[in-house]
């Protein structure tokens, strides 16, 4: 039996520290070893306690969570889970934190409602398990993208009749940026399901739109799939699928969660398998659990080309591992090779070809 994951809880609110600690300590595989009310206390506690995981409030006095996170990632890379308010400002900060290197983010619950914090237990345990590999990855990580490369050369790329579907979860913000930053302005229509709270996906789509050459938007019901556009599934409320083979569009469906998620990667991949068959490319990136594994296998059986992120470059090798073991992954690649491979698989070989 593995030792409990040792957690330091950092929040300027004593009430919130107590709430987070109580939820985490309810699981025998997690142990809160300390609490801190600001960055200075947290710095001393990290040195003294050497925790496996830190939960970190974004809004703190003196030095905010983002500034402290940057220092952690430069001086002592370790898994950090950000705790953010579910507001537009909180969402923007959370996306920035994930780019800096936070393991994951979770929204603060409404007063009296601790249910959103129960998923924190699984995130903490996954973060603790990622430990050494995560530290190694962060030490070698490139600097976050600061601006879009407006001069992406598209002259040598012409998309065939292809649709790209991508699924990701924990670690997905950095992974998606790495994959999409090389897409040209005339990229294939691309639909993405990334597990994140509903208030976060709009901010993430806006961030991607600023740093990518194609147009990136939150998917809306009835949005036509067009060359040069990337559609990010809105979080929380509905599933995103593709439909209508004669004039493909996004559809948002009011259906129960699948694999514990809404939107679900499996639901997206299933729809792409049915809509596009061999005229599709499926990609599964870093993430906890198994969402997307069965759907990717369905895509492959329908004739689609399928890619999975390899273990070495995953923050959490969960979803890609299950997909690979099921046989859904045709080719495993390191993260920095996936975007280029997608473009190879979707490029038209000659005039009139797919």
UniProtKB/TrEMBL annotation:
It holds the Pfam family Response_reg. Residues 6-123 form the Response regulatory domain. Phosphorylated by CheA. Phosphorylation of the N-terminal regulatory domain activates the methylesterase activity. Keywords: Chemotaxis, Cytoplasm, Hydrolase, Phosphoprotein. GO terms for cellular component: cytoplasm. It is found in: Cytoplasm. It catalyses: [protein]-L-glutamate 5-O-methyl ester + H2O = L-glutamyl-[protein] + methanol + H(+); L-glutaminyl-[protein] + H2O = L-glutamyl-[protein] + NH4(+). It is an enzyme of class 3 (hydrolase). GO terms for molecular function: phosphorelay response regulator activity; protein-glutamate methylesterase activity; protein-glutamine glutaminase activity. Its EC number is 3.1.1.61, 3.5.1.44. It comes from the Bacteria. Residues 157-349 form the CheB-type methylesterase domain. GO terms for biological process: chemotaxis. The modification 4-aspartylphosphate is found at residue 57. The keyword Cytoplasm applies. InterPro entries: CheB-like, CheB_C, CheY-like_superfamily, Sig_transdc_resp-reg_Me-estase, Sig_transdc_resp-reg_receiver. The active site is at residues 169, 195, 291. Involved in chemotaxis. Part of a chemotaxis signal transduction system that modulates chemotaxis in response to various stimuli. Catalyzes the demethylation of specific methylglutamate residues introduced into the chemoreceptors (methyl-accepting chemotaxis proteins or MCP) by CheR. Also mediates the irreversible deamidation of specific glutamine residues to glutamic acid. Belongs to the CheB family. Contains a C-terminal catalytic domain, and an N-terminal region which modulates catalytic activity. This is Protein-glutamate methylesterase/protein-glutamine glutaminase. It comes from Rhizobium setariae.
